[in-house]
Design a protein that fits this description.
There is one protein chain. The chain has a single domain, classed as Arc Repressor Mutant, subunit A, CATH 1.10.10. A hairpin with a 5-residue loop joins strand 1 and strand 2. It is 56% helix and 5% strand. The chain is mostly helical. The protein has four helices and two strands. It has a two-stranded antiparallel ribbon with strand order 1-2. It is elongated.
């Protein structure tokens, strides 16, 4: 049995606006922030849960929103944040695509190395 069968591929998905000159994309980090907002109801709580400063999370959200030309979060000041309808749809789509691509990559990798 080959030692290669113990390995697994790791796929990094990102979603970008091809018309944007910004390097900002919707990737795993922003997805984690959005998941945190969905679960905790606050960008501050989401940032803390992944060990990120609120100011950095805020900057990343704003840069990504500008690059994608969509609003990801509804902000309600001291009352927290929630994902917009587009933010929810983008997050759900990202998570499903990432899952499917990861599963396909693992299957193909093991087919090739076995």
């Amino acid at each position: 049995m080959s030692k290669l069968t113990n390995l697994t591929p790791s796929i990094r998905l990102s979603i970008k606006n091809p018309n944007s000159e910004s390097g900002s994309v919707f990737g795993r980090g922003i997805a984690d922030l959005c998941l945190g907002v969905r679960e905790k109801g606050s960008l501050n709580a989401a940032a803390k849960s992944i060990g990120m400063a609120y100011s950095k999370a805020w900057r990343i959200i704003k840069e990504t929103e500008a690059a994608l030309e969509i609003q990801l979060l509804n902000r309600d000041g001291a009352h927290g944040s929630s994902l917009t309808d587009e933010g929810n749809k983008l997050l759900d789509s990202y998570l499903e695509i990432a899952k499917r691509v990861q599963e396909a990559a693992e299957k193909e990798f093991h087919r090739l190395v076995d």
